[in-house]
Amino acid sequence: MHNILINKTLYEYTMCQLLGMNCAAPTDITFSFRGFSQRAGITSDHSDGFGIAFFEDKACRLFVDNQSAVVSPIAELVRNYPIKSRNVIAHIRKATQGKITLENSHPFIRELWGRQWIFAHNGDLHNFHPHLSGRFTPVGSTDSELAFCYLLEQLVLKFGYFEPSLNDVFALLEEISPKIAEYGTFNFCLSNGQALFSYATTKLHWIVREYPFKYARLIDIDVDIDFSQFTTQEDRVAVITTEPLTQNEVWTAYKPGEMILFKDGKVLKTATTHVERLAREAADPSLVRITKADQY
């Protein structure tokens, strides 16, 4: 893991942006989303749709729109209405595969073991055509939703009708994710309402805010907050995002192939997977395939 202090005011961003939050107690994401949504047309051009999911135990509120998060009335609601949740996943899209339609807007949702599962992806998977049995079928035409359906199908094939532990889910994701990453950039956030799984082959960053809480200032808009005025000693919040959101906090960058499980606002488990494609590209840079999802 690499600690970095961000002091820039503007970035060129990847083609999609991810935002996740995992908390010890229900917390709203309005501060983070206010900065994050600026990247949907003001500080960057991720304007091909957005979505956000808020878990409430086993089920979640899912909002998606094929409009930019800058102009969408739904995004304006999220920026101003403090919906509290322990697990949140958001996504702003710059389309690489699939038309700009509602069914192609992340996050995606499916039911498994009596829980709703939410998935959002940044990346571009080429020639990824896994066989699916039909238990989980994409509604849209993105590589991202196809990867989500494939991950869920692998969970069912491994564990059947009996819900596994978080550690068992983590172990299978640790096995399957680097295989999918052979087809291209594969950064994702996944949650079933109990915890938040995350994986990166290129760019993700995370931070944990806990007592004593401090002041933070957003990068993308002139907004700041003193978290100590709105929190208790029991609060703890982990935020995961493609690029850091604040300019005065220390964010931790994921290593290539790193998977992190967050629960109760802290890191529960980590693993660094081996992605053969990344190893080949490190040995021979001429093999690196730069796609729209990797342009910074």
Automatic annotation (TrEMBL):
Q: Where is the Glutamine amidotransferase type-2 domain?
A: 16-265
GO function terms (MF aspect): transferase activity
Keywords of the record, alphabetical order, are:
Glutamine amidotransferase, Transferase
The protein's matches in InterPro entries, at most eight in alphabetical order, are given as:
EgtC-like, GATase_2_dom, Ntn_hydrolases_N
Domain of life, per UniProt, equals: Bacteria
Pfam families (alphabetical): GATase_4
- Which protein are we looking at? Putative glutamine amidotransferase YafJ
Per the UniProt record, the source organism is Acinetobacter bereziniae
The organism's taxonomic lineage, starting at the top: Bacteria, Pseudomonadati, Pseudomonadota, Gammaproteobacteria, Moraxellales
